[in-house]
Amino acid sequence: MSDDLARALEDVLRPVLGDTTVEDLQRLTGGASRTTWAFTSRSDGRSRHLILRTGARDDIHASMELEAKVQQRAAAAGAPVPHILAADNSPDAVGEPYLICDAIAGETIVRKIFRMLDDTGRARLLTQCATALAAIHRADPDGVGLAAPDELAGWRTRLDEIGDTTATFEWTFRRLADERPDPSPMRLVHGDFRMGNLIVDDSGLAAVLDWELTHKGEIYEDLAWFCIRAWRFGAAESLGAGGLGSVETFLQAYESAAQIVLDRSTFRWWLTVATLRWGVICRHQAERHLSGEARSVELAAIGRRVSETEWDLLDLLSGKGPQ
User: Fold this and answer.
1) By CB count within 10 A, which of 55, 77, 184, 243 is most buried?
2) What's the whole-model pTM score?
3) pLDDT per residue over 201-238, tens digit each?
């Protein structure tokens, strides 16, 4: 299969790079919705390290062509993203829709990143994350076909599809509906901006990855998602923003980069939505295991985190939570 794929990639890259040979094609681990390959292209005596991402089209994730367009717009606004060489929604060339981009050196495994960083490095990376988000939110979201979903209604539907709920989830949905703040302007949002979807090198943030959940939305959605417990990866509660620093420090860094003032009560509402979103995801993953759809110790373990998420929701609804 890899030989056939290598030949297909040579055909795809020839219009972009000229006569090309593909070598060292290796499938990488990780990625829940996309398959990722690393390889080297050789053209005119020059080698280039590239990444191939493939994945069938569905109703949840952005298409490959949409991902490419959004990343190009984010790059134009100043966000660090991989350079895109080619993308196609058709499966004809390589068997599935695909995206090819330059490989970016650095680390994505969060616990390794934490070990790399001292206090100064964490503070620098936190500021870089805030600055990158501000750039993403400045990018033009129009004219590329981005959806603009209602996040609260969407996760309500997702939970209802499982046919199970908890008292805490139900109370949270009602409180969020009753206390919904006035909407803010719709921007380009990443949709899954968090530790684990970032490449970090010795200089800090090297690239923002995994754009398959990109859409139009409020900036608070991205800011809040970065700050839920799951993406601290065991770091202290005082490091509520991605395990790097305090939530307030993160918000102030974003305000400085974006030249706006954030509403803290609106952010807290969105932080509650983000926490509820993670809880529904955990319950959904448990259901995949319990129903027999995909028997997995990992899915079962994620399902056990529903109770952790309920605790966080009760804290947020009672006025507590990360600082």
Assistant:
1) 243
2) 0.94
3) 999 999 999 999 999 999 999 999 999 999 999 999 99
Note whether 199 and 106 are within 8 A (CB).
Answer: yes
Cβ within 8 Å of residue 111, ≥6 positions away: 233, 234
For residue 51, list its beta bridge partners: 38, 101
Distance in angstroms (rounded) separating the CA atoms of residues 80 and 206: 6
| d(C-alpha 148, C-alpha 284), whole Å | 23
pLDDT digits (tens, 9 = 90+) for 184-209: 999 999 999 999 999 999 999 999 99
Tokens found for residue 143: 């004219």
Task: Reply yes or no on whether the pLDDT at 321 is more than 80.
Answer: no
174 is written with which tokens? 């009602």
Give tens-digit pLDDT for 88-119.
999 999 999 999 999 999 999 999 999 999 99
132: CB partners within 8 A, 6+ apart: 79, 80, 205, 208
Q: Domains in the chain, please, with CATH? A: 2-102 (3.30.200.20), 110-317 (3.90.1200.10)
Is residue 281 predicted with pLDDT exceeding 70? yes
DSSP tag of 180: P
Distance CA 313, CA 172 (A): 7
CA 244, 245, 250, 253: dihedral to nearest 10 degrees? -90
Cβ neighbors of 142 (< 8 A, separation 6 or more) are none
CA dist 260 and 271 (Å) reads 19
H helix count then E strand count, the chain: 11, 9
Interatomic CA distance for residues 323 and 320, integer angstroms: 9
DSSP 229: G
